[in-house]
Amino acid sequence: MNRxxxxxxxxxxxxxxxxxxxxxxxYKNQDRKRxxxxxxxxxxxxxxxxxxxxxLFSAYRYKPKLFLNKDLDNFFGAILSQAVFVPFTAAFLTxxxxxxxxxxxxxxxxxxxxxxFLKLKIHQNNWWKTKFTATLIPLYFYIxxxxxxxxxxxxxxxQFGSLFLAILVNGMxxxxxxxxxxxFRFGLGRWHNWKEHFKIGPLYSIxxxxxxASIIKNDSTINGMAKAFAFTKIMDLLVMKTGIxxxxxxHTLINNSIHVxxxxxxxxxxxxxxxxxxxxxxxxxxxxxxxxxxx
Length: 295
Fold this sequence. Notes:
Blueprint: H1 8-28, H2 32-56, E1 60-62, H3 70-95, H4 100-120, E2 123-125, H5 130-153, H6 156-180, E3 184-186, H7 194-218, H8 222-241, E4 245-247, H9 253-294
Antiparallel strand pairs: 1-2, 3-4
Helix pairs in contact: 1-3, 2-3, 2-5, 2-6, 3-5, 4-5, 6-7, 6-9, 7-8, 7-9, 8-9
């Protein structure tokens, strides 16, 4: 692969634009804990969507040409496009409660970017169509709005979904970072290629995230953290014994440190979702009742 071609420049221009958009969103909005949980939930939903349409069904291919390996390069471009640009925009729209006109504008914006990327040959559609992008992105924006409102209400399924997705996003980012620097890779058979890694690795992360979320939701004390860590080590042992994961995936300091960090973050997310946001809701309700009584 010729990396002299500046394919990555449009990706990084968009990264700067959408990062500034997110910074502005958090600067202007005081509900930052809920917005953080919403953002992680939105990124998690995009991860799951990307796993289905890209990893399993090869809907399209990205070509930022930052990595020599085409599959790794493709995945990196997809992460920027679907799990950064779109969720950052969705957080902006939801935080400011913007109307359907703004949602339609950004849907056309992303469709136009896709067309430009196709023209520049830094993106290739296989069976995917740009009209799918223009149709599904507004739907995602509305799901994001609903998710935010349900977090305000404290709906249990959305609370647990947020905890699971927040753990998933952090876990996948950490483990994929380690796999890129050749700490481990998932696959089948003797040789594990990147295509196999991106099909099997997410299933490992999903299983760990679901188990961790279930354990930490019920018990976020040291005992709960120990149970979650024990489960991760059983999973590690299984993927090593079956040959699904190879290279430096054993009981290393780096591997254990990643697990501990993810579990610790899970306890923080649990506190935010189930305690801090609940207290915030109760405080706002009390203030509203007081104002109503005074009038």
